[in-house]
Amino acid sequence: MIVAGNWKMNKTPSEAVAFVKELIPRLAGAKSDVVVGVPFVALAGVVDALKGTNIKVAAQNLHFEAKGAYTGEVAADMLRDIGVEYVIIGHSERRQYFGETDVTVNKKVHTALAAKLIPIVCVGESLEEREQGVTPEVIRRQTKIALLGITQDALTASKLVIAYEPIWAIGTGKTATNEQANEVCHIIRELLAELYSKEAAAKVNIQYGGSVTAANAKELFAMPDINGGLVGGASLKAADFEVIANA
To answer: What are the residue ranges in the chain where pLDDT is below 50?
Structure first.
């Protein structure tokens, strides 16, 4: 079980450090793996503040090249060097606003694994795709391409995470029903079994993300194919994130 907070473009470096210091005692007894995904400028300070605790740190993106003339981008080795352990890849906002594609997601997954970063790979359908009844095809395509060239050993040894985030439920206040969320997470697990094996599929943590709150987390996480959540707005509130991480 893994609960990750995606702060998006929120909190200055000083605010971020103060916030995680508040989280440390609240989450000390969490039985889930706990991750905070913070803006690039706050990563170093947050990593330092969380040393020796059970809370890990994720970057919200990375570039697929190791180095070079890519102004404004951040490389995997830069993240590893400051102690980042996770990286969110392919979030729908990256796809929608910044030109991320299934192919670049796959490149970034390979780059993250090579740098010993744990990828949290996001997949999800739009409202139009759900209404047209093509959710399974969209999710299978995104997941298949994201994992192209990844071996079973790499998949399981890396602790790679897949986050199902229906685009229509991100930041809208709408949430998939427990059954809808579990149905798609089950589709992902079935695909992993096809691509690799049932044993490998069972080991992969599949998160649900999409307006996860303190009120709905416990029921969502109780579903058989949901292994935690990728949490947006609620991860910016210490009390709410505490409830979710302990759900």
So the answer is: none
